């Protein structure tokens, strides 16, 4: 399955984040040995535990909701944080990144689904954040794009429309804030149930867990 996914992902000039949450290091190592280097986790503590037990050239992506008091656990090594949904969190990532003399790549998470429970900004909040002097003062974070989760639904039209909405947000933010910035290029969308739709709608990073690792 991994190779089938990779063929399609590469055809769309996107990248795969193999979501390894809840799976043991042995299973992650198997996927690593097939050539995969980007892995996603949704809990800081779990990422912190797995990181030293696995090869150092793995790029660890934090994809789950992140509390400010947990940023310090992953700041020394995390490659990208997909789930930035407040200025407060971004400021803490900046502070911790500075301690380790790093610049941490981040994505702004948007609420695009119909479900109430999903985290994320709306477009107006993101514009406010990007326009604020507090954001302008941050030196150790780099906003590389956007992330979102579609409604968990069999309604493909709904899912497609939500992905299209996220792509629209990306395009407008790009023009307004990042026109001269080559780093702002990522659209993280698509999971095991909807990754093919996401790629058709412009995803650059699909986050796939159960299709690769089996069910959790
Ligand atoms: C678990 C998770 C995924 C992967 O989900 P699958 O359905 O197993 O592919 C993707 N994104 C986020 C934010 C997740 O928490």
Description:
This protein has 216 residues and is of the alpha/beta class. It has a single domain, classed as Alpha-Beta Barrel (TIM Barrel). The chain has helices at 2-11, 25-33, 44-50, 71-74, 87-99, 123-131, 133-136, 156-177, 195-200, 210-213, and strands at 15-19, 38-41, 59-62, 80-84, 104-110, 141-148, 186-188, 205-208. The chain has an 8-stranded parallel sheet with strand order 7-6-5-4-3-2-1-8. It is globular, with a radius of gyration of 16 Å. The mean pLDDT is 97. The site of pyridoxal-5'-phosphate has 14 residues, from strand 8 and helix 10.
List the helices and strands and how they pair.
Blueprint: H1 2-11, E1 15-19, H2 25-33, E2 38-41, H3 44-50, E3 59-62, H4 71-74, E4 80-84, H5 87-99, E5 104-110, H6 123-131, H7 133-136, E6 141-148, H8 156-177, E7 186-188, H9 195-200, E8 205-208, H10 210-213
Bound molecules: pyridoxal-5'-phosphate (PLP).
Strand order of the largest sheet: 7-6-5-4-3-2-1-8
Number of strands: 8
What class would the helix/strand composition place it in? alpha/beta
Large-scale geometry: globular
CATH superfamily: Alanine racemase
Mean pLDDT: 97
Q: From the structure provided, what is the oligomeric state, counting identical versus distinct chains?
A: single chain
Q: Enter the CATH topology name.
A: TIM Barrel
Keywords:
single chain, 216 residues, alpha/beta, TIM Barrel, eight-stranded parallel beta sheet, 41% helix, globular, binds pyridoxal-5'-phosphate
